[in-house]
Amino acid sequence: MARLITLAQSHWTAYKNLMHEEWPPGRIEDSQSSSMTGEGEQTHDLSIAWTNPAQSQLVRLPNDPRFNGDPRAWHEREVREYAKRYVPEANRARIRKPVHSGGVDPTESWHITVTYKKNNRDLAICHVYTATA
Q1: Structure pTM?
Q2: For the region Disordered, what residue ranges are annotated (predicted)?
């Protein structure tokens, strides 16, 4: 439980910092959780799955220019970048809800709801904050 509270506090700090950073955030080099591609760019080894409700919501998303014509790839890229920065020990992610604003807090900024896991153990349920719509 203390780990989840610490993660929640670090995510809040990350969100506050994000509001003062350029978007998208820079890449974090982490040799323990990443591997090199042929072009020399590191990628996080993260298997990404979608819940059935999230997949249904994905097809109903508007044709937003930030998705570059592929909302699924955009979401997975955002989830991967967040994991590299804040949950590097995760090797699995499950997208529970695609990008949305509001929720329990109607004023909450745009975010993706994700569960990060290491093997079958939940590490954290996170709101991956994104650039505004």
Answers
A1: 0.67
A2: 24-46
